[in-house]
């Protein structure tokens, strides 16, 4: 009879199952997914930190600048090359990029030069014209630090000369 009065004993099985579920070890797939997400987050954070240091901007401005410049850059190269570039970028950055209203994956690049790119980025970030080029160079430098040398060369080969000068490292 004492057993009937003890609520723990009457419903012991479900509570034991709940406790076991709380202390269950995550599966290998869950651990891999968590590690992958953490690495992606850390890579993105390092990219933003590098961009902030290089461009002297806040993290929120750095994020906006990265999306604006990448969107313009990807509009200027072929879609397959843009896809190859994105494959080497932090996942969070590519997710932001795909939400850009101008960004689409057309097969043919648009024809525009340095002046148009700088104007587009300047409008996106509400910067005065003199401040835009250093921001664009900082973003491009930070992107080059993330990608392989071969990918940087592939992107460079598809850019017109005036934008290529922004892409290439300054001496």
Q: Could you outline the blueprint of secondary structure elements for this entry?
A:
Blueprint (H helix, E strand, L loop, with lengths): L1 H4 L1 H4 L1 H11 L5 H28 L3 H18 L2 H9 L3 H8 L15 H12 L3 H18 L2 H10 L2 H7 L4
Structure description:
75% of the residues lie in helices and 0% in strands. The longest helix is centred in the first third of the chain and has 28 residues, at 28-55. The mean pLDDT is 84. With 171 residues, it is mostly helical. It is elongated, with a radius of gyration of 24 Å. Helix 4 (28-55) runs antiparallel to helix 9 and helix 5 crosses helix 7. The protein has one domain: Globin-like. The chain starts with a helix and ends with a helix.
Task: Quickly list its features.
171 residues, Globin-like, 75% helix, 11 helices, elongated, single chain, mainly alpha
- What is the fourth-level CATH superfamily? Uncharacterized conserved protein DUF2267
SSE-based structural type: mainly alpha
How many runs of DSSP E, i.e. beta strands?
A: 0
Mean pLDDT: 84
The amount of beta strand, in percent, is under 5%
Radius of gyration: 24 Å
Level-1 CATH class name: Mainly Alpha
Give the terminus-to-terminus CA distance: 88 Å
The biggest beta sheet, please?
Answer: none
Short description:
With 171 residues, this protein is an all-alpha fold.
